[in-house]
């Protein structure tokens, strides 16, 4: 790229958000945070950027390839610009807030930056809003965050919601017991599972195709898929571990059903990507006719690098996708105040919820009001609707 | 949105279509008559099933349409799926049609001094730059790809590069252009491809279609 860059050109995947979208985005974000606060989740705000080794350690390694880095001239260390906020919240919970009673409920909202976008989300910067429940291994904790996510989205106006439940440890345990022993074979098997390609699985050396075909088949409507998972004939060395995972999932489903019998639940036991560091129940949130996921979450261990860490669960919503799932925002009505209107008038109108635009000097009121995009005008002590052409 | 309530099934234009349509027919999908009219400009067609619509597009575009959820289900070659490598596409079924191989080829009369073990960087003409780069990177060679959309086999003769990555079934085109196969990258067949979100949110319909196509494939092989 030679020569002068056009002043409006932004780097790939970045954008200016304009009216009315910018205001709508912040309303939606604040609405989510307020809903989480009503569920007892308190907001924390980590910095945009921190030491790379903390940001991408442990489960943060999943986002390492997505993280922008720069050198800090002050500490002479590498810094990472967050590509995801979950790990920052876990860090806060296990260090600065380690002495607070468990389970600890935290929420957050902020922007993240990624090195490259994906085909479905070309944006390199977008908003995340989420909640984490730290220090409880109970199935009720899993159900609590799933229900909070679903109910909050529903009350915002998202329709056709469905929750896709996953169990990443099931496949990794099955691979350990009955999969290929070499790294290349395991990678091929994971790729084939991710594509739901039963033919490719059967072609891999050292794999029992029946077990993995049965796992692939246990996807879909949650009740039916759960029965198929329970009917799996499991290898002896992984049987206890996998069965306890499946029963854990069943308990979470029961708890969700009790409170939200109408919520559509599906299961996909091979939904693994992005859940490499999760254990227990994971979930992705979808809506009919909406591209990609609204959010995702699940059970993991939050630690500060010492010991086993704390059993935690939580979720992240992707604000850009969420905005596409909501009805387009309507611009709020604006009322035009002539220059002669008093401050008291203006304050009264704003208190009543109007956006006011006051004239600078005495032009033709109505024409000027229309030119500035006002929907109403304040004349003779009362508000009149303006006719739009 | 009414059209979104229908399932959109994408099928490839061209050679593969002849292999695919008998399969579709066995699965109970019969397109409207204009589908067969070679001169028609129409691109989307109703079928014998009122809940299913067919679109006919270029094979590479099928992966794009399905990845973005514009089509919910479709038929795509493994070559296209490998090149696209999207996590939004599932490929649950090998249809066993459209069989060919993806290979590396070079002119018969290569310099005897050329030792592939010493390569650090090679230039290759191909329609599949992603697959080619991955294939050679896995053995420590950087492949600089010259993207061509057709007539790949002519590139070495024209001095564009020494090697190509392309599909071959009989090997006739390679031979006619003085090229020999030196390596197979993958065996290619057509796959049933499904959009991930559709699989999650419209699972029952989608599984129903996968099952019907699976039965049609089995019936064809029996």
Helix/strand layout:
The complex is a heterodimer of chains A (389) and B (222).
Chain A: H1 21-38, E1 42-43, E2 49-51, H2 52-55, E3 68-72, E4 77-81, H3 86-94, E5 104-113, E6 125-134, H4 139-156, E7 161-166, H5 168-178, H6 183-194, H7 198-202, H8 209-217, E8 220-221, H9 222-230, H10 236-259, E9 264-267, E10 282-287, E11 295-302, E12 310-318, H11 319-325, E13 334-337, H12 343-351, E14 355-358, H13 365-371, E15 376-379, E16 382-385
Parallel strand pairs in A: 1-5, 7-9, 13-14, 13-15
Antiparallel strand pairs in A: 2-4, 3-4, 5-6, 6-12, 7-10, 8-9, 10-11, 11-12, 15-16
Helix pairs in contact in A: 1-4, 4-10, 5-10, 9-10
Chain B: H1 2-5, E1 7-12, H2 15-26, E2 44-46, E3 52-57, H3 59-67, E4 73-77, H4 78-84, E5 89-94, E6 100-107, E7 121-126, H5 129-137, E8 142-147, E9 163-168, H6 172-176, E10 179-188, E11 190-195, H7 196-201, H8 203-221
Parallel strand pairs in B: 1-3, 1-4, 7-8, 7-9
Antiparallel strand pairs in B: 2-3, 4-11, 5-11, 6-9, 6-10
* Share of residues in helices of chain A: 25-40%
Order of helices and strands of chain B: HEHEEHEHEEEHEEHEEHH
Q: Given the structure, what is the number of helices of chain B?
A: 8
Structural class of chain A: alpha+beta
The biggest beta sheet of chain B reads: 6 strands, mixed
Tell me the strand order in the biggest sheet of chain A: 1-5-6-12-11-10-7-9-8
Mean pLDDT of chain A: 92
Largest interface: A-B, 28 and 25 residues
How many DSSP E strands of chain A? 16
How much of the polypeptide of chain A forms β-strand, as a percent range?
15-25%
Write down the overall geometry of chain A.
elongated
Which value, in Å, is the CA radius of gyration of chain A? 26 Å
Query: Could you give the distance between the termini of chain A?
Result: 44 Å
Order of helices and strands of chain A: HEEHEEHEEHEHHHHEHHEEEEHEHEHEE
- Specify the overall morphology of chain B: elongated
- Low-confidence spans of chain B: none
| The CATH H-level homologous superfamily of the largest domain in chain A | Bira Bifunctional Protein, Domain 2
